[in-house]
Amino acid sequence: MRVTENCGGCGMCVMTAPRYFHLVDGLSQALLSEVDPDDAVLAAAELCPMTAIEVFDADTGAAVTPTP
Ligand code: SF4
């Protein structure tokens, strides 16, 4: 997964999935690029108002969430 340059720094992902995201200089960063499947990551991606969180299947590379 990754956070794109569209991040607006609202912090929703950090509140939704604090194990996976943190804010650096007001913008979100993923703590890890590859994680085990977790609904919290998908929820964060779906709730992101800027659609800035992209999640991919590590094996196939297919998008797991809609990409902008
Ligand atoms: S929810 Fe989206 S816009 Fe808000 S901080 Fe996280 S990645 Fe950035």
UniProtKB/TrEMBL annotation:
It holds the Pfam family Fer4_13. This is Ferredoxin. It comes from Archangium lansingense.
